[in-house]
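PROTOCOL LOG
Step 1. Enter all chains and additional molecules of the complex.
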Amino acid sequence: MSERKTYKKRLVIVGNGMAAGRIIDELIARDTVKPKSGHSLFDITIIGDETCGSYNRIMLSSVLAGTTSAMSIIQKPASWYAQQGMRFMAGIRVTQINRQQCHVLCANDERIPYDHLIIATGSRPAHLPALNQNIAGVMAFRTLADVDTILSLSQTAKHAVVIGGGLLGLEAAYGMAVRGLQVVLVHRSAWLLNRQLDEAAAAMLARVMTHKGVVLKLAAQVARFNGQIRVESAQLTSGEILPCDVAVIATGITPNAELGIEAGLQGQYGIAVNDFLVTSDPHISAIGECAEHKGKTFGLVEPIWQHCISVADRLVRGMQTAYQNTPVATKLKVSGVQVFSAGEWLTSPEHRAFIFVDSARNIYRKLLLKNNCIVGIVFFGDVRDGQYFFELMERQISVIQAMPQLLMGRRFCTQLPSMMALPMNKTI
Amino acid sequence: MSSLITTAVPEGTLQQQATSINKEHTTCCYCGVGCGVTATIQNNQVIAVQGREDHPANFGRLCVKGSSLHQTQHSPERLLRPRVHNQEVSWEQALSYSARSFQDIISKYGPDSVAFYLSGQLLTEDYYVANKLIKGFIGTANVDTNSRLCMASAVVSHKRAFGSDVVPGCYEDLEKTDVLILVGSNAAYAHPVTFQRIAKAKQERPHLKIVVLDPRRTATCDIADIHIPLAPGSDAYFFNGLLSYLAQHNYCDAHYIAEHTQGFEAALSAAQKQVNNIHAAAAACDASVDLIAEVYRLFAQNKKVVTLFSQGINQSSSGVDKGNAIINCHLATGKIGKEGACPFSITGQPNAMGGREVGGLANQLAAHMGFDDQADIDRVAQFWQAPNMAQTEGLKAVDMFKAIDEGKIKAIWIMATNPVVSMPDADFVKQALQKCELVMVSEVIADTDTAKAAHVLLPATGWGEKNGTVTNSERCISLQKGFLPPAGEAKHDWQIISLFAQKMGFKGFDYLHTIDIFKEHAALSALNNTRKQTPARAFDISAMADITLKQYSNLLPIQWPVNQANPNGTQRLFSTGSFFTPSGKANFIAITARLPVLQAQRNEVIMNTGRIRDQWHTMSRTGTAPHLLAHTQEPYVDIHPQDARQLNLLEGQLVELGNRGARYIGRVKINAAQRAGEIFAPMHWNAKYASSARADALVNPFVDPICGQPEFKHTPVSIVRHNTQWTGFLVTTKNHEPQCDYWAKITVQKGYVFRVAGVQSIAFDHWLKQQYPEVEQWQELQDSQGEYYRAAGFVASALVVVFNANQGHIGPTESRWLNDQLGESIEDGVRYSILAGNTGCDDEDQGAVVCACYQVGTNTINRKIRSGCQSAEALGQVLKCGTNCGSCIPELNAMIQACRSTGV
Ligand SMILES: Cc1cc2nc3c(=O)[nH]c(=O)nc-3n(C[C@H](O)[C@H](O)[C@H](O)COP(=O)(O)OP(=O)(O)OC[C@H]3O[C@@H](n4cnc5c(N)ncnc54)[C@H](O)[C@@H]3O)c2cc1C
Ligand code: SF4
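Step 2. Run joint prediction.
Step 3. Record the structure below.
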């Protein structure tokens, strides 16, 4: 009984996306925390503006392409929170943080006090410099609701335009093409995935996407959308008009940092955090895509899992686990298309490049070396051992003695660079 | 069809049921051992060969070359139709053209303006007809043979000592002796089956002492009790020393010397003058006194001694003298004509002996008769009814090609040999042929280096197709049987020569079958062959002059002489101590040993040449059998470690030898079996198999003044490291010489491997694509620094070429697996492995990727499920799969489910 009287810290989490879902798991996993049995250190409140519980946003691409159902990607249904002894405020936006009084103000005017606040508000699609984008049918591809809308539009729609030839845009274009729409993908750069692939690999990707029914407009930009209430066409700066019943914008993301910035937290692109994910206010942490660490923001989940570990360690165990910004490998989730890219991707004179090409089979594998160590990986069509190379790159292990055989894959090598031979180059 | 086209079919052997399998007894066509072979034939193809159990040369054994006879049968490079100036023509056209050209040249310049250059690969009957045509009808003795390059010295040594070209002993003597001295013989490689017999005898009778005298420690030394690595060319000093030793220690057989020999005193004093004792011998031979003393003692104290000698003795500017220095020692101790005791010259080629029997050399007439006796000349002319009998010796090989160069010989007919590769100073030979007005070549293979120089190219039948006899080193005549139809329009050599003779208007060439020729040959051997009741000439097969077709076709191996006195042949000669000299006594020859003509200058080494185990001659036939190239694949140079150090050479690097403007490039094999300052290069490679590896092109045309045999075993050459900038290999279906400084071709099951190298860095991709314009799809691995390059080319998804190269002198790793993919339509899974060069290690094959984030594959996951991971989380803990983006978790669960339901 005495435990009941123990004061519990009030922990408030704003945003219920992938970072929020994961940090809860990390908190629970640190075993002293048993909210349900009342043994918990914390009173946890989660406030999210999406109506359902936390889901696997990554799988939205699969839902769009029809390989996974919407139901199956929901990891934490609304009822789950109560079972864990947490409060979940679904479909409610936080509008303000009052740092002096240590509470947050919700759109329903409720004030929720906190001892510690975690901001996990993620990001939103970046702004597109095109006119008339606020009409129906001009969509983002970010939430389950977005996918719902696209899917219901797809029932009647014939033409789709996707803007942005990055990972997200390609997955959206592919998903809609699979659903039978005629998809045109408009991309500003001269080649697809221009932040991950070099021109040669991108040319193969372009061939494959074309084969899958996606028409590509490279080095092109949308100037405006036409239509009164509903979108009817997209007009390029070249003047070309692309008919469309649905347009998906996937030109990058902007951190949802305003909530914190307006409350006086520091940050340029997102909410600035230190190595322990603490903002300029020690009572407030920020994780996920809304955060900015050493001038960098985030777009993939892998580093975000590290955020969650660091914060959970600190809040539960008082341990200072530093977060390190390490490179992350890119993979594309388009059926039949394998892409693996990490580190540098454009060959420059200071690189030594090893390249395997099988044009007839659309296979391209490039390793970039500097000082005999891998600094870049660009694989297309056959990504075997991508992760292995990634580890060699992260650990800066000399690979030159195993080249060029190693490029074909480690199972073809009799001698492999030893992972053990060298300590990790980076100090912790 | 003209009557010229019909081919005489040997006694119905060809008209068998197509599918029936039958066996034929025949003889191997390669070395001088002359092994009996039983061939299995089906559908007009030899499908298997086996050693013939009842043949005295091999008793069932065969070496690698012999056991591959059926594989070299279907060479894609066979010459199938006559060609004149590179145009395929009919036989009628080819022969009319050649006969007319010969006639024109003879009528303008006389008979000495034409020549034949023959080969120890020809059968006795072929040889006989060629010799008869040129010496008796065309009227010149300008006929020589490649036997000049191997046996000429021994022939003259025999004639000088015995009055006749006779090998006194037989193979059995090698087994029955107590001391076997092999000198200048790497029997293990050059006479493999004989070597096996010796090895077995040694095993059964360990007290049989085996001594090898050879500058190199060869494979033959494996069974030797003593190996003396004597200085090259010092052999005659060794045997002069032995003669002195025998006299000094009273080991000579005074009785034998007195009764059966003449000239002993002069020979002994010449020997003593030069090499008076063991120490002098050791100094002259650059060998250990103790070893020499031991070998001398062995020779002296044993009754049964055989000295087996071969090219190390013969191929020398003093080869005749060396042979006689050996024979002197045997005569002095009476070690001749007895079981287990004789000097034994072993021949290189299958029918070198047969050629000697018919007199197919410039300094012989026929059937062991010579030009030094007018009676002989007249006798033969009469026998042949020859209108234009040659009266004097003709030009020997080296001089013959010189005469061509000088324009004295204007027409030459080359049969069954490849002098552009095998002659000394072979580049000179090539140039000479280019100047020659008419070059006729009879060949089995279409584009030998010599065939390339031919104006008239005539397709000859090969082993299995042609019928006739051969004689091996122990005078044993056996039948090489024809049991296959000729390939294409090929004809037998005797037929070609006869048809040509008829075209020239000569009578006496209307043979219908080889037996007609053989009987004439046998009859000639009997002609006036008696002196005081004993044969005047050793070669006497008079008992075979009336042989029936049935006997001939089932000829059992038989050793000549075969005459009334010895109807079943003769195992050993000179057993009674009577010889074929006018006096009936054997001659000692006084020998003053000489060293080779040239010694090495500064920066030079002495090049020795010889055979490797699995190749025959210039590789025209054996080079096409993949597994014969498996043992030694590339031209090489054996070099002593000390020389290698000095010259800064590493194992496997290319090294360049030079002499007379010719060069030889081969791989360095560091080998302590060489003497320092001396190197060894194999003689086989021709320009079809390597860019610059015709070793004989470097050999000086120095010949023995008596017999004209060239000094192949001792050539001072320059030596430098090849300035290799890049090295690689091509695996390809295309038999096409790569455009680069160095290449060597290796025949494999489905195509060729070319080892390539260059002295200048090249853009690999550019270079490759230029040579394979037909390739439709390329797979490439590029290195921006140009250190490595790999590429595979496909035509309609079939693999036609793989190129793998890198900078430096150490080439990339080759693989048999890769060679086996040639010409195949490659499925995607394997296609990826082509540039890796192997299929990869199977236990590391993860299978299709399930977890894209951590690249975990089906196989790995299934293995873990089977070993107890029953949830996606459990899998994630051990394999990390599904722990990043989680998109594979449904698939992981499905796999666990599947595993449970199948119970695997
Ligand atoms: C279609 C798609 C495919 C993707 N595929 C991959 C992939 O393959 N691999 C990969 O690593 N990453 C992928 N990503 C990116 C990945 O989903 C994000 O990096 C990750 O979701 C970021 O997590 P977060 O918690 O920071 O942000 P989010 O998951 O966006 O969560 C933020 C939540 O906060 C809510 N919110 C925002 N402001 C407020 C507020 N004021 N009050 C209340 N709630 C608020 C938002 O509505 C949202 O629900 C993909 C993204 C998309 C859209
Ligand atoms: S030893 Fe000579 S004859 Fe015998 S099989 Fe070998 S190559 Fe033929």
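Step 4. Note key features.
Residues 421-428 of chain A have pLDDT under 50 and may be disordered.
The pocket of flavin-adenine dinucleotide (ligand 1) is lined by residues A 14-20, 47-50, 57-58, 60-61, 93-94, 120-123, 141-142, 168, 256, 259, 288-289, 299-302, 304, 333; B 885 (CB under 6 Å).
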